[in-house]
Every structure is written in C-alpha cells, then in structure tokens.
C-alpha cells in the first residue's frame, strides 16, 4: 500500500522530491535521537531552510497556502524518515494553518507574525498541564493571566511542550479571571521569566523533548493577548490537527516496509527460499497492507472533505475518527511487523522496537479514544432524537 495513489498535484510531487532527499540523513539520526533523547535540531533546521515551515501560511501572507491534504502527505513522509521530526514540525504546521485559515487573530498581528514565520519562526501551543490533563477535556488552566496596567502577567507551568528546544514562540493558555474564560497569549522565547524545565523522560517520541514550559510572572503586551474563549477548543472543527494521525501513519509505513524487506531477505537454512514464501508470513504482510489501506483511505478522504468548502459543513466526528483509526491501525501494523521479524525486532539496534514505542504515543495525543467513541455515540443519539 503506497501513498502514491493520493499524489494528485505538481506541488505535491515537487515537495515530495525535496523531502525525499533528506530520507537517508533523517534516518541516520533516528537511533541517536532516540537513545539520547536529544532533539533533532539539524533536521528541523533543514526543513526551515528549504521553506517547509512556511507552507501552511496562506499566499497572501507570503506562504505557499497548501491544503490539509497536502500537509498530511508531507507529514506522513517526514515521519516515515524520523518520527520525532515528523511529530515536532507537524505541530508548527498545524498551528499556523489553523491560525490563518480561521483568521483567529487581528489582521495586523497576523501580518506581523507571518513575517516572523517567513524568517524562520517556529510556534506551538502550550496548553497541557499536569493538573488538568488534555486541554480538549475542558479543564480550567492553572496558569493565570492578570492585567497590570497595559500588560498581562502570566504565571504557571505547562507540560508536553513539544519542540521546546527550538520554539521561538509559544501560544500559552491561561485562565483570565476578570473575563472568566481562557485566553491564549503569544509569548516570545526571549521573554523574561520564561524558562524550559527539562522533564521529558519517556519511552516514546523521546527526541521531541516535550519539556515543561515555566512562566514566572512573564509580561505580555495587550497586542499579544491573541485569543479568548469560554469553552474547550475541542468544539471547533480543525482539519489541521490531522498532522497527528499522518505522523503515526508514516511510522506504520516505515515498519511495514522494514518487515517486508526483512521477509524477502531472511532465508534460514530450515526452509528453501526466504520466509516471504511462508503462509503465516504472507498472512501478516497482507494484514499489514489491509490496515494501511483502511487507515490511509480514511485519513485522506477526511482531509479531502475538509478541504472542500462545500462538504466541510457536513463534517461531524470524522477528524477525531481519523485519528482513532489511524493510530490504532498503526499500533497493529507495527505489532504485525515485529511478529514477522521475530526476536530480532526487540534488539535495540533494530528500528522496529523504536517504532513500537513511538506509535503508542499517539494514544495520548488529542483527541483521546474514549472521547471520540463517546462523541460518535452522542451524535448518533442526537440525530435519532431529532428526526
């Protein structure tokens, strides 16, 4: 099963050719990145240098104005080279895409920040906290923003700040008492009182260095109070979040490719030919490709529906379902790949053990599986009651 079926434009072909030049380089860093839990700075800088990080910026702001379908194609490709690089840069691509598609900020701020992006700025949201869990569940941030004169004073601590070593800007959520709601503030990395607390010590996506962001009375100007809402952001339809399942699809593809190559080349003396001729191995290969087809078709179909403005209003839970289907399929695919390769897949030198750990991180990216299933049920019930 190949993503080639979904390549339909010259822009996609051109960018895939650019990205594929980095396949060997990105892959060569993956083992070291994982073992040392060190952020792949060189990979990210390479993507900045070729203009990748401006792709989701609209053309009227100096970017390339790609669609969600384009983004997931590219993100899947990068993640198949290196998962930490794929997930990390995906957050920047998704945040920029959403900000400018929905015109969330005032025009002058959008233009000012667009210039920053064109000059290499990298941004991610900082919304998760230890006490509230995933922000999509609607918890009130412990981080607070208090108005003092013409500035806001922000204090608190955020976790899971992916790409923290190289981010130039953070979109920080904070509780605004005087407004009784949640505000997002654009905070510059060089702000006084801002620091990174190195807390990232996990078995999956180790290279993302998703450390804690600490804000100790950080001053932010009024113009950088850029968003406000009374409820969780999960209620919004945001196709740019599909960069998450695209990442795990890329990892699954890499695992499948490794296992198939291994099956073709591995020829123990107990059989004639390679293990690729064994019925049980062919069954596993067939099952992997079936899972890839299911996941990829659903993901790309959902992205296409989102990109089509005439169809977008009919989207209900497809975005969340895409993440659910792709992530769980990716976990299954990696498991099947390891069954083909056998005990060798458990060796630390083997990439499959890294894929096995990394795909499980998808279960903890938003939205969570239980929320997706619950919303599907609620939608079905509401539709039936309103008929």
Automatic annotation (TrEMBL):
Its EC number is 1.-.-.-. Residues 128-147 are annotated as: Disordered. Residues 12-98 form the Acyl-CoA dehydrogenase/oxidase N-terminal domain. It is an enzyme of class 1 (oxidoreductase). Residues 126-218 form the Acyl-CoA oxidase/dehydrogenase middle domain. It comes from the Bacteria. Residues 245-361 form the Acyl-CoA dehydrogenase/oxidase C-terminal domain. Its cofactor is FAD. Pfam families: Acyl-CoA_dh_1, Acyl-CoA_dh_M, Acyl-CoA_dh_N. Belongs to the acyl-CoA dehydrogenase family. This is Acyl-CoA dehydrogenase family protein. The lineage of its organism: Bacteria, Bacillati, Bacillota, Bacilli, Bacillales.
């Amino acid at each position: 099963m190949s993503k080639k079926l979904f390549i339909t434009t010259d822009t996609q072909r051109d960018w895939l050719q650019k990205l594929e030049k980095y396949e060997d380089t990105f892959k060569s860093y993956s083992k070291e990145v994982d073992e040392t839990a060190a952020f792949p700075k060189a990979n990210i800088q390479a993507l900045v240098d070729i203009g990748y990080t401006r792709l989701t910026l609209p053309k009227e702001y100096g970017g390339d104005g790609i669609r969600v379908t384009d983004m997931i194609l590219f993100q899947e490709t990068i993640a198949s080279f290196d998962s930490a690089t794929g997930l990390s840069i995906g957050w920047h691509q998704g945040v920029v895409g959403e900000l400018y598609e929905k015109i969330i900020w005032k025009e002058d701020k959008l233009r000012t920040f667009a210039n920053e992006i064109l000059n290499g700025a990298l941004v991610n949201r900082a919304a998760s906290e230890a006490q509230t869990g995933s922000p999509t569940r609607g918890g009130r941030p412990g981080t607070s923003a208090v108005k003092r004169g013409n500035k806001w004073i922000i204090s608190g601590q955020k976790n899971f700040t992916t790409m923290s070593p190289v981010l130039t800007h953070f979109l920080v959520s904070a509780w605004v008492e005087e407004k009784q709601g949640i505000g997002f503030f654009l905070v510059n990395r060089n702000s006084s009182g801002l620091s990174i607390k190195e807390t990232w010590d996990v078995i999956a996506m180790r290279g993302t260095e998703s450390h804690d962001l600490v804000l100790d009375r950080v001053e932010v100007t009024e113009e950088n109070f850029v968003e406000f809402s009374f409820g969780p952001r999960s209620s919004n339809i945001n196709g740019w979040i599909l960069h998450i399942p695209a990442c795990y699809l890329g990892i699954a593809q890499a695992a499948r490719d490794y296992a198939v190559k291994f099956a073709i080349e591995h020829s123990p003396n107990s059989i004639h030919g390679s293990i690729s001729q064994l019925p049980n191995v062919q069954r596993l290969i067939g099952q992997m490709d079936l899972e890839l087809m299911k996941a990829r078709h659903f993901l790309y179909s959902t992205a296409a529906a989102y990109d089509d403005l005439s169809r977008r209003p009919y989207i209900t839970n497809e975005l969340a379902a895409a993440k659910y289907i792709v992530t769980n399929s990716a976990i299954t695919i990696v498991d099947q790949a390891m069954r083909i390769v056998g005990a060798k897949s458990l060796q630390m030198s083997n990439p499959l053990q890294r894929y096995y750990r990394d795909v499980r991180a998808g279960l903890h990216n938003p939205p969570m599986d239980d929320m997706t299933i619950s919303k599907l049920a609620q939608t079905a019930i509401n539709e039936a009651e309103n008929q």
